[in-house]
Amino acid sequence: MAANADTGFSTRQVHAGSATAHASPRAMPIYLTAGFTFDDLDASAAHFGTGAGFGYTRTGNPTIQAVEERLASLEGGDQAVLVSSGQAAVTVALLALAGAGDHVVVSEHIYEGTRGLLLDNLARLGIEATFVPTGDLDAWRDAITPRTRALFAETLSNARNDVLDIAAVSAIGRERGIPLVVDSTFTTPYLLRPIEHGAAVVVHSASKFLAGQGAVLGGVIVDDGRFDAAASGHLFPHLVQTDRLGGASYAEKHGPRARGAYIRESVAPRFGPSPSPLNAFLIGQGIETLSLRVERQSQNALTVARWLEQRPEVERVDHVGLESHPDFDLGRRYLTRGTGSVFTVTLRGGLEAARHVVQSVEVITHMTHLGDVRSLVLHPQSTSHSARTVDERERAGVFPGTIRLSIGIEDIDDLLADLEQALVGVPVVERETVVL
Ligand SMILES: *Cc1c(COP(=O)(O)O)cnc(C)c1O
């Protein structure tokens, strides 16, 4: 290193004390660096030629890679690509499949950010979306056109806790060579591994349960590594045709891993939503306790849902672990380890009752986030679902008196006591008198 006492102040301020010592930390090291040094010219040429080794953090970083390998393993997928947010994960997954003139079929009950992405942003790029009811298999089939390049849905959706029949919807796509992409944010790989049921690509907002502590944003795309060029190549010419310079196609180079390789090598680094290695580290730390948190959160949430269902102030509770939920049987089939911790409660007293509760809770926090170790509450009608019509909201189970809970890992008695005190003063009225 050019940092001995003969070099100038400015040289020493950037070169003295460079920490390149090799050590073996047990915790995942944070490679907080934009890039990596090359041993020699051949190494740099090999990196640019074949991607060997590490060069620049947007195309690869050991901390990020460790988290990707952990997530691919937990999902039972082939490879994972970590990005900077859940929105970025959805965007990258869809842009890897569809281009101008193409079409996607999408469940109507999806995260508002994804719906806006499709309606406002991808539409401007010429990618059209048709929305269908999550559970209507005929609607999924009928919506497919010769230009359809993906089916997209959430495994367990906000607000009504609809469960996606992954096996049935993925089979409809497979008949036509079209992959099912699922957003599994609400279920996490601990509760559900969609690839085992036929999904081709799984995305998550890692900002939620995976990180788990509400400190960072992140997203991940997991590919199943089962791209079938014979069945689907005609739909995805960018995967099977020779590259821009006449070289081998992704399918020739990567076989069934072609789609995952395209996401990793082309879409994610070019559009550029790279995660910070520091955020990757925090997501990796969070994942180490995923099973413990989600197990406790699911137990707590079901107890809270059952308690609320008995309360006179409550009109309905939409939690898939309750026998009263229309998808209870589907939930039993897909969610064998727990039913998640995000659900909605509709109060008979309408908007004013909801206002009272979100402003009265003390243990539960009033904010827009979910999957945190802390319990959170939000009023969907005036926030996450405010861009929907009254009709769309009602079909999603969102009424003026609806609040969304994301239950954390606190002691259950404290959560029930908090809700009990927050319900004091909330009117107990009949449904007919509720002004919608
Ligand atoms: C939060 C969320 C997203 C978006 O993720 P960000 O990390 O906030 O960008 C996408 N899908 C679902 C289901 C979400 O809950």
Automatic annotation (TrEMBL):
Reaction equation(s) it catalyzes: L-homocysteine + H2O = 2-oxobutanoate + hydrogen sulfide + NH4(+) + H(+); L-methionine + H2O = methanethiol + 2-oxobutanoate + NH4(+)
UniProt region (Disordered), positions on chain: 1-20
GO BP term, pick one: L-homocysteine biosynthetic process
Modified residues (N6-(pyridoxal phosphate)lysine): K208
Cofactor(s) listed: pyridoxal 5'-phosphate
Gene3D superfamilies on file: Aspartate Aminotransferase, domain 1 (3.90.1150.10), Type I PLP-dependent aspartate aminotransferase-like (Major domain) (3.40.640.10)
Keyword Chloroplast (UniProt): no
Molecular-function annotations in GO: cysteine synthase activity; homocysteine desulfhydrase activity; methionine gamma-lyase activity; O-acetylhomoserine aminocarboxypropyltransferase activity; pyridoxal phosphate binding
Residue ranges of coiled coil: none
Enzyme class: lyase
Domain of life of the native organism: Bacteria
Annotated Gene Ontology cellular component terms: cytoplasm
Matches recorded under InterPro entries: Cys/Met-Metab_PyrdxlP-dep_enz, OAc-hSer/O-AcSer_sulfhydrylase, PyrdxlP-dep_Trfase, PyrdxlP-dep_Trfase_major, PyrdxlP-dep_Trfase_small
Enzyme nomenclature, EC number: 4.4.1.2
Keyword Transferase among record annotations: yes
Pfam family, one: Cys_Met_Meta_PP
Keywords: Pyridoxal phosphate, Transferase
Family: Belongs to the trans-sulfuration enzymes family.
Matches recorded under PANTHER family: HOMOCYSTEINE/CYSTEINE SYNTHASE, HOMOCYSTEINE_CYSTEINE SYNTHASE
Protein name: homocysteine desulfhydrase
